[in-house]
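Sample intake sheet
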Amino acid sequence: MANSRPASSSLSDTEQTTVRYYPVRNSCAVPVPRELGPGEAFVVPNFELAEALIAYGADSARIAISQIDSSEVNYPGYAQLASNKQLAPVMPFRFDRSILIVLPTYNERQNLEAMVETIGMYLVADILIVDDNSPDGTGQLADQLSRQQKHVHVLHRAKKEGLGPAYLAGFQWALARGYQLIMEMDCDFSHSPWDLPRLVHRSGTADLVIGSRYVPGGNTQGWSRRRRLVSRFGNTYVSLFLGSSIRDWTGGFRCYRHELLARMNLESVNAKGYVFQVEMAWRARRLRAEICELPIRFSDRVQGQSKLGWQSIVEAITEVPRMYFQTTPSR
């Protein structure tokens, strides 16, 4: 994927004649991807071949899906965003399931409008902005976007309580309104909106789909060596207690089926910081949910400041053993 923060742009800002496509028509022809130039891309007939290419290291921002056999998807073609060179469908993917994307925000005014616009280029879905009373005016901007776009909703919370409570509030809002798929992602473009249709498509056979940095084809970009080590250590630490069936326990780019979240007893979730992602994956595994990890390219935020602090690290160190001793999952 392109890993820089997309500018606020629309499909009027496209180049449709500069892309040279390399077709891949069946799984037997999937190669180790060649290095593509800025005006080149792969073209495949379905999501399955796209996933095979990505697992070999191809950039998902440079893969066009030329035709979808499934009647559940409306696919009209691709264009190239001139500003960032990632491909975008001329119209967003539309699935036959109701979808809500939960976006927790705290001081994300610099990113929010561009994120909402870019999501709309790739997927037909409702968006719930969960704002924790951001002092930079994110909540007011969210209200403005909600008035302008009927698929955008806002949930205001009185104060910043951590990532976990914000997501839980969003999940409960979604369950009460009957959304069939509930997605979560960061608002800072570290999770690429152009990967949203991939997660939704895979949810047809999985209860929980995790956008993973640590399966073949996944990686991180723009991280310091220290941050890579912290992330790797964190996932290794979790795996020592909870097992290695999940490679990216802490990943926060996910798609849940309604039925799974409804069984999770969300009121009893304890985690508040980034270990919230670990607890949710652990609960899903205890419920014997079908869990799938799709490779993503995770890039560091460009605008704003990271919210990962020592409090989150300390919480992870203490909460993961608690999960293990509460009920040891089968490995």
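Comment: The mean pLDDT is 86. The first strand starts at residue 14 and ends at 15.
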